[in-house]
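stage 2 :: seqdesign
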């Protein structure tokens, strides 16, 4: 298990960060925070492939790259038993699940947007990690990723469906990962 190495000043990141040290190798370990726009990933993988996203496989892939110090999945609570099972599965994998109630408007449209919550959590996390991973195709996050890259020097990785991810988000990311068959159930 990595141990804290102590405060390390990095002028590029404009703050003092705590790094992790692998006691077996002596190398520093990349600290990763993960943020999942569950509705976006669910609907885009369903639209593109008719399949579900494999969160366990993602967790393993990210764990192999460093230490996941925070992982949050943002979802809508419709009170459905299948959704509760899915949310419990996310918790078992290691995600904190944040829920908002499903709101049906009078005109028949629905509301259940986590963009502001995700943004606040990413801004708070960016000071403590080396890499922020966002699973979403929503172009509203492009300015956020530019900001955390410039102000905190973090790597901003995005996972999304190629044809359903905003070009502005892809361009704002340090690294873009196209979700393909390898990350689907």
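stage 2 :: out
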């Amino acid at each position: 298990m990595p141990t804290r190495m102590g405060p390390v000043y990095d002028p590029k990141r404009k703050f003092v960060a705590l790094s992790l040290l692998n006691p077996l190798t002596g190398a520093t370990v990349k600290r990763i925070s993960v943020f999942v726009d569950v509705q976006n990933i669910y609907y885009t993988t369903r639209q593109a492939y008719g399949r579900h996203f494999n969160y366990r496989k993602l967790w393993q892939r990210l764990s192999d790259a460093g230490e996941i110090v925070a992982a949050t999945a943002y979802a809508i609570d419709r009170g459905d038993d299948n959704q509760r099972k899915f949310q419990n599965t996310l918790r078992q994998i290691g995600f904190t699940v944040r829920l908002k109630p499903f709101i049906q408007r009078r005109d028949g449209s629905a509301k259940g947007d986590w963009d502001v919550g995700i943004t606040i959590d990413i801004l708070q996390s960016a000071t403590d990690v080396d890499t922020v991973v966002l699973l979403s195709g929503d172009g509203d996050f492009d300015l956020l990723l530019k900001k955390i890259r410039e102000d905190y020097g973090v790597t901003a990785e995005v996972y999304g469906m190629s044809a359903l991810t905003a070009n502005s988000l892809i361009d704002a990311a340090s690294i873009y990962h196209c979700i393909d068959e390898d990350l689907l159930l």
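stage 3 :: structure notes
- Residues 1-18 have pLDDT under 50 and may be disordered.
- The domain at 30-183 is CATH 3.40.50.1010 (Rossmann fold).
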